[in-house]
Amino acid sequence: MRVAIVTESFLPQVNGVANSVRHVCRELVAAGHEPMIVAPGPGPETFGDVRVLRLRSLGLPRYRSFPVGIPDASLERELAAFAPDVVHLASPIVVGAAGMRAAHRLDVPTVAVYQTDVAAFARRYGVRADALLDRWIGRIHRRADRTLVPSSVSRDQLAGLGVADLHVWGRGVALDLFSPERRDQARHDRLSHQGRDLLVGYVGRLAAEKEVRRLRELDGLPGTRLVVIGDGPERGWLQRNLRGAYFSGELTGEHLATAFASLDLFVHPGRNETFCQTVQEAQASGVPVVAPAAGGPLDLVDHGRTGLLFDPEEHFGLWRATAALARDEALRARIRRAGLERVSTRSWGSVVGELTQHYAAVIAGRRASAVA
Questions:
Q1: Is the pLDDT of residue 63 over 70?
Q2: Exposed site from 18, 77, 98, 361, fewest CB < 10 Å?
Q3: Are residues 188 and 149 both part of a single domain?
Q4: Are residues 275 and 367 in the same domain?
Q5: Cβ(325)–Cβ(308) under 8 Å?
Q6: Distance CA 260, CA 253 (A)
Q7: Comparing 121-125, 194-198, 244-248, 285-289, which segment has the lowest mean pLDDT?
Q8: CB 222: neighbour CB atoms within 10 A?
């Protein structure tokens, strides 16, 4: 199949959308398919042997590192020249909406992948336009031939916006990268005061929508040291307020996998995740998880078995759950084993195999409609 992937974000950005597109593209090539990527902002114009069409962009106010695409006529022209069998819309908002219009004019079926709760994202930056944004997202996904959602919560959310033909499609995890075998005990002991403390880590963007300021609850938790892995606009505030924490900055590849596996606990404070890929990466790294009982983590964490969930509305709920796990070594061991088992079949190869079945279904549906 020839697959045009139209995405709102791609390298050099590091986020859930960009990372998913990267893995999907690699697995499509490995399976003999021919992808092309359309993405906003400056960056590499190839990904391996795959072409990346770059669109003009502008930076978001208060978040300049996140480029928003400005689609033009080149998008439809390049799609027509590529002649895709299907257009994959990765978290469609602006570029994805333009990709949808182009696909309709070219009579190419579309699979839209919902990944970002745009209204919640905007609220974190002081933009109160929930109804308007929900109408826009609903309109885009209602026009797609099929929408893939990352969790049951997202499925219910889009169903409430009138979107039909919804299918839950979770993310894969790089099992060849994230592994307990990556643990670096020397690194762990260096950061944990020679092994006296447990390392409690957060991994991800340091941004308001991740609710990272809640990490302040954990600074100074007895018997632990907080490790913050990532970068973003909230880093300055966190460094001023988390005096006992270690900040690694942004890590990728083997450096990230080693840092992950060298933790003793992983925590995610934010309640607006449609999936929460870092939960899976922690589980694959053999690290017990604490996550909010909201959004994507509800599908990834079986409370008390593959992790602990906390009520995000409860004051110091994150602290209580983390403290409970930190003081119970036997519980940590059980959660570690169950988490590893949960992700053992979630390789990107198997997950993209599911994705291509969705591609085939919408292509077959379009052909059947043409015959009728």
A1: no
A2: 77
A3: no
A4: no
A5: yes
A6: 11
A7: 121-125
A8: 8
Of 207, 243, 246, the C-alpha closest to 228 is 246
Same domain for 210 and 245: yes
Phi, psi of 367 (to 5 degrees): -65, -40
* Residue 220: pLDDT over 80: yes
The position carrying tokens 């709920």 is 317
Instruction: Report the domain count for the chain.
Output: 2
| 125 alpha carbon, distance to own chain's centre | 19
Q: How far is CA 370 from the centre of its chain?
A: 36
**Same-domain status, 266 and 320:** yes
Question: What domain range includes position 93?
Answer: 2-172+347-371
Read off the pTM.
Answer: 0.91
Checking if the pLDDT of 60 tops 80, the result is no
**What pLDDT does residue 64 have?**
57
Asked whether residue 245 falls in the same domain as residue 122, the answer is: no
CATH at residue 37: 3.40.50.2000
Reported confidence tier of residue 367, pLDDT bands at 50, 70, 90: confident
**Burial of residue 165, with CB atoms counted within 10 A of its CB: 0-12 exposed, 13-18 middle, 19 or more buried:** middle
Whether 197 and 71 map to the same domain: the answer is no
